[in-house]
Design a protein that fits this description.
By secondary structure, this protein is of the alpha+beta class. Helices cover 45% and strands 10% of the residues. A seven-stranded mixed beta sheet has the order 3-2-1-4-7-6-5, sandwiched between helices. It is globular, with a radius of gyration of 22 Å. The two termini are 35 Å apart.
Length: 320
Amino acid sequence: MDTALNELIALSQKVGNDLNMVRGSGGNISVKSDDGQYMYIKASGVALKDLREDFGWRRLQLDLVRSILTDKRLMAMNTLEQEEEVYKNLILSCRDEMPLDWAPSIESHLHAFLGNVVIHLHPLAVCSLGNARNGTTIIKKLFKDNKKPPLILGYCNPGYTFARKLAGAIQTYQKQYGGMPEVVFHEKHGIFVSADSGNIALNLLRKAVKVCDGALPKLLFKATRIVEETTVNDIKLAIRRAYFEVTGNYVPVTYHHNELIDTFCRRQDGKALMRLPLAPDEIAYADGPGIMGVTKKIPLRSRSNWLHWLIKDLCRQRLI
């Protein structure tokens, strides 16, 4: 197995199984080959922790990927046309024998002009600051003493638009600091870490997340409430029944409760917070009209009946 692919798989599994870094399957990692001709990157829609030698990655020819950002035709297109064209070009840049329906990350062209190893994640500690009203100011203060401070970018649409913006910002950064940024914070889109090796990239990532986590206020937990076992069992049964009626499949349902969940549920603004996803992972895996935007008025005869309706609605929408 190619050493670059081996490093991609090892890094992806290590990071993907770390709940401080990844929730769900969001984020991406890429590693460039020793000869500089190719880049291995996780395929879109695949969880980092699931990468294997025969599953979940694509190999792209770097010169073809990098040419996307200099394509003058793209600059004249609208956003939708740009993203469709970028997607086609990325597929045409693939040089491997993996299934054709495994698309490379839509931000592969962004990874292509960063360092040898690139890690892009949405850790909660980073997004909590990056999504805050004054988050950019806080992040600048936290890292102001670094010899190579992080590059901090305001929000813009992911994909081609962000790649163009980042390319210009990197040129400015290189003139000011004499080298590429090792860490990039993108408002509402997490953190990018770029380094010569996986170990260096991983250390940079962990240090940055630790600094961000240390700046967050610590929660004071209140006494945990005990939910009656009969109530838990009724709700679990309602979920299993609803899922079976829609899909024809039986699924295990588990109940999890701890101090953090309990503290959140006690907040008076808890419902409002549930409508405001904090990170891209949450937007992808927890948002949608069936969960956050329920507007139907239904008779709430019991929690079990409401959950029964909700799960059926989610199954119809293929949200679960």
